[in-house]
Structures are given as structure tokens and as C-alpha cells.
Amino acid sequence: MDAHSGQVIAEHNSHMQRAPASLTKMMVAYIALKEIQAGKLRREEVLTATPVVNIVQWDESQMYLKPGEKISVDQLLAGLIVMSANDAAVTLAERISGNVPNFVKRMNQEAKALGMSNTNFANPAGITMPDHFSSAHDMARLGEALVTTTPDYLYYSKQQSFSYNQRFHRATNLLLKQDPSVDGLKTGFTKAAGFNLALTAQRPTLNPDLQNRRLIVVVMGTKSGAKRAEVAHKLMNLAYNYTRDEVVIKRHQVIAELPVIKSTLKMFKLETEHPKMVTTSLYDQPYPIDLQAFDNQRQRIMLNNLSIEPLQTTKTHLNLEVHEKQLTAPLAKMMQLASVHVYQNNHLIQTIQIQAKVQIEEANIFQRFFMWLGSLFSSSTSDSYMVKTYPLDTAR
């Protein structure tokens, strides 16, 4: 998944419900970091471990916290993400929501808000339970939220080791050492889940509108830690080499002008606040990519001992659909006013919804009178209800 465009680049069984194991802790960290952003929790805050840590069994990953022990939120986050500590998960859960069951409700609320439709959390640690499940697609969505909404997560997930109370733990994400562009996200393992990995990396691009590009890969159910790293890294490198991000709508680009009635404002200009990206393919063969054909050393797809080079140009075009013919005052709300459909090789690859906060005051009785008077001397009113659109970027 591309973190900038939100597009899924490749998927296989991505909506299948599986045991997420400790990928679950990504949601715990997401909530904790949102609480910090909201000022309801502080990194330097020192908590006192309660008897809730006693529910963690001897064979579970943990920091070995004891009731009454003092520990900072910052240490708990590092223990949660680097050590995958279950006692850190329940301690943060209790601090944020008062008790673990209430925190699990919060986890599911956040999952629903992120569109994680194949997810249900039953505990904060990732313990295998019949009603505790997620999917690769949902975990990628959670990863996207972490890197865009709570990017401080990456400060912890890129750490290759963490020590607490003379206990040293080396990060189990093998790619942190192998690839300097990798800075997260989380590993997970149980017998029921197999070996899971949510991986992210950020690499520089040659695009002046997007200096760095971030991708997210989720692999679930492999047979070893080495295998999950191998598969995830291949997928990551394949996507970086054979796809790219393109700006299809520039920052502050005017999309359309909508006529306004009952207001002194004649036209409402619909424009974008931020540039809009799409992910396009640089692979032009008529058959699907076989991951086994990708040579991770050469960074190329090899077919019959021939290297398939990435395209240098792509054939994209845009279709604009405006949803309102005119706007009637008074208005003060967020409105979805247009859709931009992006096609590559005549295949729809992305639809971008254009929203705007519309605030238009209604003209008073005197203003309306003078507007009426002015219309009597107008030579033509035929343009009053015409939607004016502007050309968007096309072939590239």
C-alpha cells in the first residue's frame, strides 16, 4: 500500500481474517500516541504498575513489571513496540481507559473509524482468541494511520534494541539491519498466527513534488521470521521499482467555478488545498507479475533471463465529475463537490473526492434589490447557471 495515495498496489487474500498476534499492539500504540497528541497523556508521565500485570503469563513477551513498580509512558511505548511486551500493553490500556475491557472497546471503535471491516479485537496484547482477528488489508490501513496521523510511532519502531531493568531485547524485524530505509512497523508471532510482519520504508524520489515516498507491506502467516522478512522485502522493492507516485492535481488548483444564487458572491471557486497523488504502474507486460520472477539483488523482474525495465512514462488521463450545478446561500458546511477519476491505459486506478468547506452568506434584502436591479440591465443571464471547469493534468 502506498501511504501517500492510499492505493493498494498488490494484494493476495488480503481480506482473509487471521490471527494478528502482536501486530495488535500497533493499535495500542496508535491510541496511546493519539492521547499524547490530545494532551491527555504525557511521555514523561510516570505510572505505577498495578496488579493487572499479573495476568501476563510466564511464556509471554514482557518487561517483567511488578505491581507497585514505577515506569514512564515513554519506556512503556518502547517496551510495547520494540520488546512487544504484553505487560506494557495492559498497563497502557488501564491508564488510558480505566480498565482493559473499556480499552478493548476503544480499540474496536478506532478500528471501525479506520475502515478495518475484517477486524475485531478481544485483548490489547494479541493473545490468540476466537473473537480476536484482523486481516492484512486492515493492518495496512492501521499502518497508514500510524505513519500519517501518529508518525512519532516510527521513533520507537526503528529502534534495533531496547533495554529495561537489565533485560536486553533485540528487535525481531530483521530488515531494520538489512535496509536503512526501513523504519518499522511491527512483528508478531503465535502458533496460531504464524510469523507476521507489518513493514514500512521511506525512500527518496526524483519527483520534486514528493521528495520521499513511503510504502507499507503486510505479510501474515509465514513459517519463520526469515521468510516473512524475505517476502516483505521483495514486495517492498518490487513496488518501489515498478510503481511511482504522480501529482494529478496541483496545490490550490481550481477545479471548477460554481454559480451562487441569493448571495453577493457570484461564483464559488472549487480548488484543492493540497496536491493529490496517485500511484501508477511502470510495468507494461500483458501478464501478471510473479513474485518469484523478481530478483531482489538486481531489483528487476527477470523473464527468460531478460530484465524487464520499468517504464519511464505512463499513460494517464483524468475525468472530472462535478456534483452540484449551483450553490444556494446561505451555506456553512463541508460538501463533496466533485470527483476526479484517474485512468491509466483506460483502466480506472483511483477516484479522488474533492471536498470543500463552503461558507456563503445570504444577501440581505437591500443587496438582493440591487442585484435584481442590476440584472435588468444585464444583456444576458445565460451564463448564470453554467459550471465552469478547468483543464487538469492529463497525459504523462
What's the topology here?
Layout lengths: L24 H13 L8 E3 L21 E3 H9 L4 H12 L2 H14 L22 H14 L3 H5 L3 E4 L2 E4 L4 H4 L3 E9 L3 E14 L2 E13 L2 H18 E7 L4 E8 L5 E5 L4 E6 L12 E2 L4 E4 L2 E3 L7 E7 L4 E2 L2 E14 L2 E14 L4 H12 L11 E2 L7
Structure description:
- The protein has 396 residues and is α+β, with helices and mostly antiparallel strands.
- Helices cover 26% and strands 31% of the residues.
- The protein is built from nine helices and 19 strands.
- The chain has helices spanning 25-37, 73-81, 86-97, 100-113, 136-149, 153-157, 175-178, 225-242, 365-376, and strands spanning 46-48, 70-72, 161-164, 167-170, 182-190, 194-207, 210-222, 243-249, 254-261, 267-271, 276-281, 294-295, 300-303, 306-308, 316-322, 327-328, 331-344, 347-360, 388-389.
- Strands 9, 10, 16 and 19 form a four-stranded mixed sheet that branches. Strands 5-6-7 form a three-stranded antiparallel sheet. A three-stranded antiparallel sheet has the order 12-13-14, covered by helices on one side.
- The radius of gyration is 26 Å and the shape is globular.
Query: Could you list the spans in which at least 5 consecutive residues all have pLDDT below 50?
Result: 379-385
Rg measurement, Å: 26 Å
Percentage of residues in strands: 25-35%
Distance between the termini: 22 Å
Oligomer: single chain
Structural class: alpha+beta
SSE order in H/E notation? HEEHHHHHEEHEEEHEEEEEEEEEEEHE
Query: How confident is the prediction overall: mean pLDDT?
Result: 92
Shape: globular
The tally of helices reads 9
Main sheet overview: 4 strands, mixed
In percent, how helical is the residue content?
A: 25-40%
Number of strands: 19
